[in-house]
Amino acid sequence: MAPGLYLVATPIGNARDITLRALDILSSADVLAAEDTRSLRRLMEIHGIALGGRSIVAYHDHNGPRARPRLIADLAAGRSVAYASEAGTPLIADPGFDLAREAVAGGYAVTSAPGPTALAAALSVAALPTDKVLFAGFLPNTASARRRALSELASVPATLVFYESPKRLGAMLADASETLGGERRAAVCRELTKKFEEARRDTLSALAETYRDAPPKGEIVVVIDRGQKGDINEDAVETALREALRHGSVRDAAAGVAMAFALPKRQVYQLAMQIKGRGDDDSDSDEPDGIGAGDGV
Ligand code: SAM
Known about the structure:
Layout: E1 4-8, H1 20-28, E2 31-34, H2 37-46, E3 56-58, H3 64-76, E4 80-84, H4 97-105, E5 110-113, H5 118-126, E6 133-138, H6 143-153, E7 159-164, H7 166-180, E8 185-190, E9 198-203, H8 204-211, E10 220-224, H9 234-245, H10 250-261, H11 265-275
Parallel strand pairs: 1-4, 1-5, 2-3, 2-4, 6-7
Antiparallel strand pairs: 7-10, 8-9, 8-10
Helix pairs in contact: 3-4, 6-7, 6-9, 7-8, 9-10, 9-11, 10-11
The chain binds S-adenosylmethionine.
S-adenosylmethionine (SAM) binds at residues 12-13, 85, 87-89, 92-94, 117-119, 163-164, 189-194, 219-221.
């Protein structure tokens, strides 16, 4: 097998979703590395691949800086290194980025053995447009940071994909409904490729209601349709502004929200002033450049 780093996708639930090429690579790589050594060993057992005297090197978020030099040294010695994350595709909300980057910087071959990822599986079943997609990974944990992150995505003209934990799902959907608009279509995709796989497709507000007090079990991807052009939800703009005003000046809040919702800065600035309770005609100007008279609201 040619030397280099092989980023190997592994199943996200159903062990038979492994690819034939992934099995070839796992059986013949000189060095095996994994985010979770037990998961990879079990997967290899299921598919009858012998370790053949090889150990599996642990490489994960907590030991990356310590474990990387050894794997890079293996590449330098002309070995083939296969790396798998616990499930799905390495680097997709999983470790592997620094390893791949260092390998590329060192001039070593980096190749993928593509295969399962919850991102693609969810897009397949969500029944939402896939012509443009923004993968947003996991949202921040705290409610305020989550709402801020959502409001930044409000005007993105693409289907949005989030990884989410079951216990945060209800709160995330409530925030998404409020920030992006409750009428948007969305899908909660759960336990993909596993026994209790399901996809619930509905509006954000209906899904928020469904999961409000009923956290589901298992692994979850939330897919949300883009907003419709000209369909700006005023409540969503105001929510985003209130959130932004808690962290920044009127000027910054208005600029950020105007950009997020693709709205004229002046219009958003005036709303921000109203929220601050100072009125539209307040002349103490932290009015931002370029939104004076004639800026075309
Ligand atoms: N690298 C993986 C991939 O390619 O999808 C993602 C790893 S990330 C740490 C784990 C998250 O992916 C889970 O919290 C969940 O949001 C999503 N996920 C993984 N497997 C899933 C499945 N079978 N069904 C639904 N979501 C899944």
